[in-house]
Amino acid sequence: MLEGIVRDSMTKQATKTLRRDGYLIANIYGKGLENVSTAFKKNEFIKFLRTKETIAFDVTVSGTVYKVVVQEYQKCPLTSDLLHVDLMVAQPGVIASYKVPVIGTGTAIGIKNKGLLMTHTKRVPVKCTIENLPENITIDVTDLDTGDNVLIRDLNLPETVKCFLDPRVPVIGIIKAK
């Protein structure tokens, strides 16, 4: 489980000091909950996120355990270092917005015909409760040929999961290689 500390001071100088000491600045929030300003060891946070198997994961801040989901993060435009992360508390029974990863399986016919597999939408935004949240959206691409796309309307989502993107948005497809 990932452990963090509560940030006492919100000043610019305190934030710089924490970042210099190897901490990642984070905010934990949720519907009806008070915001918690925290900091995590940056290297531990990145290692933990790379090895997690579920979208929601547990963090501990000053003895309190939160089940959270990464909502947004900010990177430095020059160095691509992680600067800040927003963590939303996944509350049971509360409908919230989540971003579900897309995974393509199989070898497409279009790849054999000198095409390239393009994932246009790496994460599909959905609204549902945490209990109904799928871990990923798996798309079988074996029947796709050059120029074919899988659109949002072609996805088989459970009835309790609503996607609020335009149904004509492509998720994954095969483009012609030049």
From TrEMBL:
GO molecular function term, any single one: 5S rRNA binding
UniProt entry tagged with the keyword rRNA-binding: yes
Cited Pfam families: Ribosomal_L25p (PF01386), Ribosomal_TL5_C (PF14693)
Keywords: Ribonucleoprotein, Ribosomal protein, RNA-binding, rRNA-binding
Family assignment from sequence similarity: Belongs to the bacterial ribosomal protein bL25 family. CTC subfamily.
Domain Large ribosomal subunit protein bL25 beta: start-end pairs: 98-177
Residues covered by the Large ribosomal subunit protein bL25 L25 domain: 2-87
One Gene Ontology CC term in the entry: cytosolic large ribosomal subunit
KW Acetylation (keyword) present: no
Protein name as it appears in the record: Large ribosomal subunit protein bL25
Organism placement in taxonomy: Bacteria, Pseudomonadati, Campylobacterota, Epsilonproteobacteria, Campylobacterales
GO biological process: translation
PANTHER family: RIBOSOMAL PROTEIN L25/GLN-TRNA SYNTHETASE, ANTI-CODON-BINDING DOMAIN-CONTAINING PROTEIN, RIBOSOMAL PROTEIN L25_GLN-TRNA SYNTHETASE, ANTI-CODON-BINDING DOMAIN-CONTAINING PROTEIN
Role noted for this protein: This is one of the proteins that binds to the 5S RNA in the ribosome where it forms part of the central protuberance.
InterPro entries: Rbsml_bL25/Gln-tRNA_synth_N, Ribosomal_bL25/Gln-tRNA_synth, Ribosomal_bL25_b-dom, Ribosomal_bL25_C, Ribosomal_bL25_long, Ribosomal_L25_dom, Ribosomal_uL5_bac-type
Subunit field text: Part of the 50S ribosomal subunit; part of the 5S rRNA/L5/L18/L25 subcomplex. Contacts the 5S rRNA. Binds to the 5S rRNA independently of L5 and L18.
